[in-house]
Amino acid sequence: GIGIREVLLTSGCPGTEAKCIVRVEECRGPVDCGWGIPISEGLACVKMPCIYIPPENRFKYVWKMLILNKTAHILPNDSAIMEVCRDTHLVTFQCETQENGNIIASVKYTVHAKTEMRTKKSRRTETGQSRRTMTDAILVFCLVTGIIVTVGVICAMIFMILHW
Fold first, then answer.
1. For 147-162, how does the pLDDT look when each residue is reduced to its tens digit (9 = 90+)?
2. Where are the alpha helices (DSSP H) in the chain?
3. Which of 26, 94, 133, 159 is the most buried (most CB within 10 A)?
């Protein structure tokens, strides 16, 4: 894939440095970068970036919609960032970053359906409410325990002062 790497020297550095940078260079590794994380993700739409380094216009971007057991559908979008709105079913997209006709990076995104996002949001809300209730119960328990201990200590001090 594309990226930047630092070439380090581990011996022969100036002074007492254990490591020093010799140079910074563009690197190329495995083409398949796996699954990406969208730039922004809302209930209605998702923004997904291709893999690139500046300047962005030095690469060609090919976006595909991947369909299970079928040939991928090439989309007309040729920009580094694509925004799609959620559909009624899950869709997988792939972006290939190309330079001089060669694929140098590839990343995939799964865009969940509107109904799945609503379900996930309601689950998060339910989980958040149960956590809040649990946290409130723990706080009340600690507060009551603190008050009881404080009153007990004050009573013990008064008892010791009176019987001294």
1. 999 999 999 999 899 9
2. 114-162
3. 94
